[in-house]
Amino acid sequence: MAITLTLTDITLASTLLLITIGVSAYLRLRLTGTLIMAGVRTVVQLSMIGLILAWVFARESAWQVLAILTIMTLIASHSAKGRVKHPYKGLLSDSIISLSVATGVVTLIAMTLILKVSPWYRPQYIIPILRLILGNSLTAISLTTNELVNAMHDKQALIKSRLSLSATPFEAVHELVKSAVLNGLTPTVNSMLVVGLVSLPGMMTGRILAGADPTQAVRYQIVTMFFVCGGSTLACTLSAGLVVRRFFDERGRFVITEQLTQDYYYQNHQARWFYFWAFYVKLRFLSHI
């Protein structure tokens, strides 16, 4: 039987933050304000998401589900862009393409061929599944893109020397691409190696706490881990290919100097408007509940 949590239970759980605040004060970490803000944002943001999901679940509209998935993908893409040390022109569009294709393909396979959900856009299934794939793919392409762009920046002489010896653009950066993709997939592979032994994933734990059969909870977690692995691999590969394409022109010449010229004020200004727009969309959803 599932245990129903009340507002009193949530309030009691929030008092555990006092331990962290106490440690922060004792060690003079200056995290008290940040921790309080983090706790408030956790409650507010998850409450908003809960209201939005309840509204979407009650309607099961394909357009509303696609709107939610699109917003999630855009926010994740912008977050991936912000994690790159040396951003280049076109990074946001590359992140959108990588995440959209990778999560879209894997989620569609999951919904239609494995879970056999009918209709395929049922929000109770597609939103949690895509969120898991998207979150892990976000980490994967962030690590891949960051390492590959840094390598392009730090090893310009090596790349140019290989090109001067008649190497193709792919041959010139093959080792860099391989290392970057491996770095991007490392968290996913590590989590698969220790799952069930060191940690119980959130999806499996949630289903067990909700009263589901442990055997079915385990099976759901197994297929979910495979979804995450497939999505992360596809996202890393696409991201690396798009990065390489950006740093070579149509004649195969290395153009890193031009690509790394960025107006950082414009980027930050653009980021503020992006998150304002995402918050506005959430409020519009809430206004219809």
TrEMBL record:
Topology relative to the membrane: Multi-pass membrane protein
Record's GO cellular component terms: plasma membrane
Entry keywords, A to Z: Membrane, Transmembrane, Transmembrane helix
Subcellular localization: Membrane
Main location: membrane
Keyword Membrane among record annotations: yes
Superkingdom of origin organism: Bacteria
Transmembrane segments: 6-27, 34-56, 62-79, 91-113, 222-244
Pfam families in the cross-refs: UPF0014
Signal peptide: none
Record's keyword annotation contains Transmembrane helix: yes
Family named by the database record: Belongs to the UPF0014 family.
The protein's name in its UniProt record: ABC-type uncharacterized transport system, permease component
Origin species: Moraxella bovis
Gene that encodes it: ybbM
